[in-house]
Specification:
Mean pLDDT of chain A: 93
Oligomer: homodimer
Largest interface: A-B, 64 and 64 residues
CATH class of the largest domain in chain A: Alpha Beta
CATH topology of the largest domain in chain A: Nucleoside Triphosphate Pyrophosphohydrolase
CATH architecture of the largest domain in chain A: Alpha-Beta Complex
Number of domains of chain A: 2
Number of strands of chain A: 10
Structural class of chain A: alpha+beta
């Protein structure tokens, strides 16, 4: 880092985990001062809105997961999603996770948006995709994934976002993007 | 925890930090099996969309922050937001963070939505609010907050979400909620 440039001055690995790691970094800020920040390091992820019928058609059906989440001590509605493997491109990850979690292969996979989940304490980025032209196969889930699939009309998914029944940020954003926003006041 | 119930079986604090802590928990899953999960513990936060004119009026102005984020090594557009103090209610936090980051007091603060930021590895929830009837005062920021304020018409903020210029998930969702979604295909 050049003198005066913002960014990392020093780093200390506080924890190395299976999914995430935690660094305590000394950071130079825009005013030239330095401070310590806790930063959860994450490889990034892809998330996919799977369309079971033509996305441009009348109220298309999408596939949602009902997934047990320990963080929420509850079952959350989510779109299929998962971490990037080392060196894996977001598009390849989207195809792989869709297949693993739902058993579907997508003839069409369209990038919608890339978001920081919570940039105050993690570098995690999630790449959101729309999947269409699906063919069904067999899901292969990881041991700690507890998932039920549910077919939902897009209009109902949007209504679930409006009333807060979809609580997962990536899922709400991915559906809103895939729908081109919608609703009116 | 009752026998057979899902949830925490055991917990080990792997790191205690200033903002976040990290637990490695043994968890019972819905099928009765157990496994280890890394869980970043966060007190939760409130985020606010500040309206500088009537939210129901013609293309109202909102206030966005341009904030240096080490996680992104970049400046991100965000809405004002911050962590709950111990025992603090989300509404009180929203008023406090709005005042600290923008210097504004809100005559009206309306809850929009509560979201899990990334429930695969953290229990962080963000409570989103719409603030209106603002009176301007003086901001009091924390030492490591580098923020510029920018007035933006709501229509332009929505267009920034569409083209990916707003990359922060809570900010995109909060604005979409405050706008009642919008846009068309």
């Amino acid at each position: 880092m050049a003198a005066g440039e913002t960014g990392r001055v020093a780093t200390r690995r506080a924890y190395t985990g299976r999914v995430i790691s935690l660094d305590v970094d000394t950071v130079r800020f825009p005013d030239g001062s330095t401070g310590e920040l806790e930063m959860v390091r994450h490889p990034g992820a892809s998330a996919i809105v799977p369309f079971l019928s033509d996305p441009a058609g009348e109220d298309p059906q999408i596939l949602l997961l009902r997934q047990y989440r320990y963080a929420a001590l509850d079952v959350l509605y989510e779109v299929p999603a998962g971490r990037l493997d080392a060196g894996e491109a977001p598009l390849a990850c989207a195809h792989r996770e869709l297949l693993e979690e739902t058993g579907c292969r997508a003839g069409r996979m369209e990038h919608l948006f890339t978001m920081y989940t919570t940039p105050g304490f993690t570098d995690e980025k999630i790449h959101l995709f729309l999947a269409a032209e699906l063919t069904m196969g067999e899901a292969h889930r990881e041991a700690d994934e507890f998932i039920e699939l549910e077919r939902v009309p897009l209009s109902r998914a949007l209504e679930m976002i409006e009333r807060g029944a979809i609580q997962d940020a990536k899922t709400a954003l991915a559906i809103l993007y895939a729908a081109g926003f919608r609703a009116g006041r």
